[in-house]
Amino acid sequence: MALVIALLGLAIGSFLNVVIGRLRSGESGWRSRSQCPECHAVLRPSELIPLFSFVVLRGRCRACRKPISWQYPIVEFSTAALFLTAFWLHGGAVGLLGGEALPILRDWLFVAGLTVVFVIDLKDMVVFDSVTIPMAVLAFIFSLATGAQPLNLLLAALVGGGFFLVQYAVSRGRWIGGGDIRIGAMMGMMLGFPGVLLALFLSYVGGALTALVLLALGKAKWSSQMAFGTFLSAATLVVLFFGQRLLAWYASFLS
Ligand SMILES: [Zn+2]
User: Fold this and answer.
1) How far is the CA of 139 from the centre of ligand 1 (A)?
2) Phi-psi category of 172—alpha, beta or left, where left has phi over 0 and alpha has psi -120 to 50?
3) For residue 66, how far is its CA from the centre of ligand 1 (angstroms)?
4) pTM for the full model?
């Protein structure tokens, strides 16, 4: 069963690469065939196999020999790895057949949405409302279906969105973008309360540590901008998978 899920993850990862590509280029046509972004050679079916095609082609386009972005194999591999992680965290095959199918499906959906936000913000420092708003609505539905309380989710979305709304208003949009407000609301719908607070905390810690490392290495200046959506989406995933354990550990630490 793990093999089937890994293959499913690879296939969904490949699909996410297409979604990311279409969103970034602004193309709306979903019917056009996959092609090389450099020379527009239409890809053969044998060149559309996740991971495998990248390895066989040795990371270069068959037609123009230009390098293929590492984004493709990395997204394919990480989607498969995260799908398997969700599967195992919910008890593996026993869980899947014993009532955990819906939570696993929910986690897979969140993995897909967060991966798209992560990659696009990392590459372009842009967050698309066409991703975060539908994901927030889907997250609300799936969280309710897996036992979350509606008021808890609304509170969490208000906390997540409000946290950025206040900063946006105070700085008149200089510190953060409006897209972060929608990510905050989406995070709330995915994690509930207090998970959303933990995710915000982790993204600030992760962002600050990364900034210090980049400054120390001379790869960034104090005036440099950071793609904060990448930290938010990564932290959301960590809390989705390990939030209960982290909160329990913290509670035991306090007592
Ligand atoms: Zn090419």
Assistant:
1) 38
2) left
3) 6
4) 0.92
pLDDT at 225: 77
Q: How far is the CA of 59 from the centre of ligand 1 (A)?
A: 11
Q: 12 C-alpha vs ligand 1 centroid, how far in Å?
A: 23
- Residue 42 CA to ligand 1 center (angstroms) comes to 9
Please give the distance, rounded to the nearest whole angstrom, from the Cα atom of residue 68 to the centre of ligand 1.
8
* CA 34 / ligand 1 centre spacing (Å): 11
Banded model confidence at residue 138, pLDDT cuts 50, 70, 90: very high
pLDDT-derived band at 121, boundaries 50, 70, 90:
very high
Per-residue model confidence (pLDDT) at position 30: 60
> CA 103, 195, 74, 141: dihedral to nearest 10 degrees?
40
Summarised one tens digit per residue, pLDDT across range 173-229 is 887 778 899 999 999 999 999 999 999 999 999 999 999 999 999 888 877 777 889
